[in-house]
User: Fold this.
Amino acid sequence: MAAQVILLRHGKSDWDKLSHSDFDRPVSARGISQLPLIAEQLAPIIKENSKIICSPAVRTRESLSLVTPFWPICEAVFDAQIYEAGPAELYACLKEHGDCSSLIMIGHNPGLVMLLNKLLKEGEFTPEAAHLPTSSAAVLTSNVATCSLIKPNSANLITLLKPKT
Assistant:
């Protein structure tokens, strides 16, 4: 059985609310309309009993609430390590929470796209994988039993879903 990791970038944040700190910025109207479309495309891929690891920032929590109605029931955990994390911290988070065969990480760039490229096998990198816009998802698999066993440069890119702008 292959382990599956889905990296989902939060919906477009609302920069019109300048009174909010970066952490407290909500999802914009564009993000609210794009995320359900990506969630529907991911629905057939999401495994029962997947674990969701989510940044506690407002826009990631709102993104979580916009996508989960389309998916099977998943355990969700908020982890402060994800907010403003680089690839090393995100990889550590994957190892820490990866005691499952399917994990969804909802977070931020540039860390998510850097983690994506850290996990991809050589030859799996494409120009498309160089950028992960808001509301985008990358689906990866690796031939290991649990997500915590995924090593750098060992994952296959199954699909990369980006919203139409």
Observations:
- The domain at 3-161 is CATH 3.40.50.1240 (Rossmann fold).
